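This section describes the prediction task in plain terms. A model, or a person checking by hand, is given the sequence of a single protein chain and must write out its three-dimensional structure as a string of tokens. No templates, partner chains or ligands are provided. The sample shown here is typical of the held-out split.
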Amino acid sequence: MARNLVGFLVLILTLSTCGASIFHPISDSHRSAALELFAPSEGAFGSLEESFEALRTFEILGIEKKIDVTESTCQLVAFAVGSSSSSLKDLFFALRVNGILKCVIEGVLEGIKSRLQAAVNDASSLLDFYYSVGSLVLIKDQTSSSVLFGDADGIFRSIKALSQSDGRWRYNSNNPESSTYAAGIALEALAGVVSLSSSEIDQSLIDTLKNDIVKLFDSIEKYDDGAFYFDEKHVNAREHQDALSTTASVVRGITAFSAVISGSPSLPGDKILGLAKFFLGIGIPGNAKDFFYQIDSLGCLESNRVAIPLILSLPATVLSLSKKDQLKVKVNTVLGSSAPPLTVKLTKASSFDSKDSFIIENQELKFDPENAIYFLDGLPKGVDVGHYVFVFEVVLRDPEHKKVYATGGQTRVPLFVTGVIKIDGAEIAVLDGDLGSIETQKKLDLAGQNTVSLSANHLQKLRLSFQLTTPLGNAFKPHQAFLKLRHESKVEHIFVVGGSGKEFETILDFLGLVDKLFYLSGTYDIQLTVGDSVMENSFLLALGHIELDLPEPPEKSTRPPPQPLDPYLRYGPKAEITHIFRAPEKRPPQELSLAFLGLTFLPLVGFLVGLLRLGVNLKSFPASAAPAIFAILFQLGIAAVLLLYVLFWLKLDLFTTLKTLGLLGAFLVFVGHRILSHLASTSSKLKSA
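The expected answer:
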């Protein structure tokens, strides 16, 4: 397990430092994410804009989710279309939703055409043109009536007046700031004007707009992995858009405009492919808006007339010589659809470490129609373990194909070829310090278990040597080759094992290392680590131990550093505590205790006998209400005092008992005085009578 761990860690480090990126088309993971991000609440998505984004995403990904929201969403559409107070934006998105759900509102649509045509004539901002023209295009597509502009040239020129010399656009004539995001909106609006024109638009206007698109692409930005994107330069924070939304707007605008004109703008295929790589490179966005931008843009690129991007990807970028893996390549559109008939060639393969050593050129890959995968039947001859850059070229077999595809020319893909490294001539020896002669020498099995036992003093040396060769017999230099000595006090020392060609060797001169070893004599465990990202048999192996006899440390020598406390000892379970209680004191016999208990009841018996001898009776108990209450309270007070004595015996302390007794005593004095006064008054009346 340790061997695999070393190799895995090195592989991760190597892959993370590689600058190239592998792009993969949209997969089932995006479909699962769409169902989570666009989950309807109580049968609806929310606003009409949110509904359109969810439905459009499901439509592109081929997810059948319409039936759950059709009824509630169509109600929103009908309300927006039928209300005279609906904004142009609400009408636009209502018609977009209706284009997907096919709600029964065709009769209502006829009534809003005149309102939208008036809005086009009165429009003064780019967004007014965008929403009103776009809504009329949607009505034309959803109804059988004709929707045409009589003065399409004039509307086209009104929108074109907001353009800038660099290909960007303004939102209105009063705003001097230009926007890349607005350029995409303008292109969509102009595409709508062209599709609704009753006559041909002036070709010079179309050519000028094509030139503006080319200028806009001059400002495109690029990542190191070949992805292209548009960034917003607008300074107004309210209208600022990020790179994703800005690029999505431009892509939608260009594809919409290219679909309605004859002849597409002259845009380089590598930039179209770079835009696809940008959207694929962001992975799966975490919010619904960004997810819609990604999927909608890829859907536009999949069906655009300029150039449809083809994505070349490798199912695996790590191949094993020992397992005889095949090199497999996939070519798909951005949404994962099958590519047209084409040929994939491996035009060049160069070593990552030695960029001038080309291995192979111009080798055509075979095609597996069942799995739609191109493959090499075995790696090219001469490919050994190591890091490589394979360069592929995609060529269309049918140059007269109706659709134009962006293959991207040559695609560079980093590839890691792994294999089992052969280890020979491993031995460890103790050498004489002066003559260099071998005192003790032992062979090592670096593929198995070793229990080497050595001894040396400070005048001797330790030598470790071995050879590493690749499966093709070439010299192999691993990323990691370390020798570790660990003292019985847990002080560790690590030494790099250097190599030249196939031979790796390290010599430890203990005389020069006594200070580094802190003059610690005793047993040292020996451990060897050899690992590399392409080495399938990387290992971390215990070789045995060596007994070192080092001189006594000088007075001012460096002391060993304190070792970190084992967290298990600090936070782990403590030793069990055992305790023996003191033997109980000797107690009297049970009979004596019971006799003493009986004696404690004698005062109570004497009290009761005394009451009987005195002739206690209830004849003198007051008959009137007030004296009777005081008499009862006095008796209860006496009972409370007796109860207090019992509680004092069982649980109360002396201070609590005295406090309570003081309160009861005051109460008894008061009620006792009242009842005794009543009895004295009654007695004197009887005597006088």
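For orientation: Confidence is low (pLDDT under 50) at residues 1-19.
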